[in-house]
């Protein structure tokens, strides 16, 4: 709200100044002779124009009221008068409509209208009222009701306001002069159709000489070219909007505009040093970080992203460099093991290059830089190293104790070249089958070997430095035990052979096969035959199928279990080893009573009525005992005794078969 003069004179002068435009516009023009409202040539156009009316016998002025009137007395608005009113008091004036009685009052005798409250145009710009002249005694209208408008005349009592402020804006650094940053806008609640109260101009109070603002549009532009974000990245501007077209006495409002210079890639990466030196231990594991280097770049975000590469160096394939995406550092990684004794230092040439180069700023480049990196390898005391980490050896399973199998060799990689002592990790040789010579590394047998029990021995060999026993190297000796033919073939399973009493001659009653613990390179080949003493018996025959199986066939029919319930055939099995080994295995054949389909119903001996044992039964028992004794003896005798065992077994079997 505008200020008011404290003295009565000031208030009077201000009031007259406000009334002067109204006088110019002729708003108070009145044609007394007509009784109609007469508009001045300078009066307001629609919508404030009073609607056309029929000729009346009473008239009033078109009314305007100044807003924000601060006088002590009610503000005179205007006067209503009817030609019917002869001044004799018979006519009474009545006012109705918006604000009647609450804001506007009328003297019912004289028709004078006053505003009793201070009005605000920004709250309500005009009021529509109805006036009527009535007979005082009868209250009957002497004139038709007529409508008129009281317009609230604007004064400059509202300052411009930035409804969207304060503002945040950004503009790329290095922008040309006059680049638009943002547009601000202020609004003024005063009447934009009357005077200059709502006509705003913009100016910059704070922010020069970097930025400017267009007075009429509020567009803010850069006022200096090539502003550098790295020098200063933010500016706070104060923008003023002043009404009355910026003239003296106008009201003003301000807002702040925070302008941030956004980054562009106008700074190339640069290493802070032309060379770097790093030291690492030769024991550093592969894929470990050797060093981190960084090229400085004043830009930020994607404009500071860079790639590193090794341009050249004297250790090809030893190192690699990658970019840490969080820090934009170049991370040098070890790719191969280091060895101080082989090479104690490496020199690398490394380049850093911006990923996102802006073609508008190529003249500020080049956008890459190089530096030298020297990596020095420090010696450490290393454990002995085997010349061959895995030594493969072989030994025959019949090797004598103390037989040398092979030799392992290790050396101290350090310059001290300490002596080496060897030992076996006994956790890998719990039964102590082997020994190693502590000085020469020769491995030998310490116990007889059996390939069938353990065909491969995986030994861990320790190589221990003489000067520093804590430095221990490890190697592997893989010893394969070679097979010899030291196992005779035997029946694959314990066969249960059933023979029907009604079997026909030439009938196959059993197919047998064999197994052998040995594993000849060319595979197994077994030969089958009935033992010599029973080869010509009249009951059974054997047919070698030449596929490592044999068939047992009957030579006759008419077997009777009452006569002999069980037959025992000694079968000779010979392998193809060198020398060949053989064994005699007894096949028991039980005679059974079978149905017509050959299914055994009952097998074994038939009970006799007489008591005691016959001579045949006694001989059968004796034969079994002899067979068991021979079998036990054969298992305890070495390979050279197989022929004796076979003859004794054949003898006992011959006794049984011939008797029956």
Automatic annotation (TrEMBL):
Transmembrane segments: 616-635
InterPro entries cross-referenced by the UniProt entry: Cadherin, Cadherin-like_dom, Cadherin-like_sf, Cadherin_CS
Gene Ontology molecular function: beta-catenin binding; cadherin binding; calcium ion binding
Pfam (any one): Cadherin
Record GO cellular component, one term: adherens junction
Assigned keywords, A-Z: Calcium, Membrane, Repeat, Signal, Transmembrane, Transmembrane helix
GO BP terms, alphabetized: adherens junction organization; calcium-dependent cell-cell adhesion via plasma membrane cell adhesion molecules; cell migration; cell morphogenesis; cell-cell adhesion mediated by cadherin; cell-cell junction assembly; homophilic cell adhesion via plasma membrane adhesion molecules
PANTHER family, A to Z: CADHERIN-23, CADHERIN-7
Protein name: Cadherin domain-containing protein
Source species of the chain: Amphiprion ocellaris
